[in-house]
Design brief:
single chain; 232 residues; alpha+beta; Ribosomal Protein S5, domain 2; Alpha-Beta Plaits; five-stranded antiparallel beta sheet; 10 strands; 29% helix; 34% strand
Amino acid sequence: MPEESRAARYTVLPAAAATVPVVHELEVRRSRFIACLLRVESEEAARGFLARLRREHHEARHVCSAFVLGPDRDVMRSSDDGEPAGTAGVPMLEALALRETGTGDGPVRDLSDVCAAVVRYFGGVKLGAGGLVRAYSEAVSAALDTTATVTRQRMELLGVEAPHAEAGRWENELRAAGFVVRDTAYGTAGATVTVALPDDGRSRESFAARLAAVTAGAGTARTLGAEWVDLP
């Protein structure tokens, strides 16, 4: 079951970005800034990703980083990795933390579970503090522009006990009504239809009404737990 959080939903990189980083390169006055974004769920995963990049780019001058973790974005870290203080990690973190997404009723800032690294190969021309801030921030923002994002929703899992003869019909009618049916498990005494509802305090009431109509009042739902789900 997910840990308790204030947020019921937030924005993440697509699932593919958990294994294959999003990469975008920017050149500024002969310096190469290679931005790499990975979807991560822990500090350990973020730091492991950064260690791999440092090994792969061992000739690079800097591998600066920032990451944001958790539904409530309560873990935020950044590193300048040898660049002048405040010119790399912080601008990168701001590019992540201030990123506007379409989750909810309008643009919000809720991007999380993301690690950004910018590998810099020095081109021989100093950029100054302002130039570095712009370059590192732009590298991360430009990489984000190249990828889609998805909404991650906390879902409440409910189990509906059904007779064998009715389970298929109940499942089909609940799906037709727009509810997410995760699976139907058949046992010796009957079947359990597992339904996932947005954990928003409102969906369970509408589900109860539909369930009563579908089952003629015979079906009841019990709470099985909760999980975070990427919405289609």
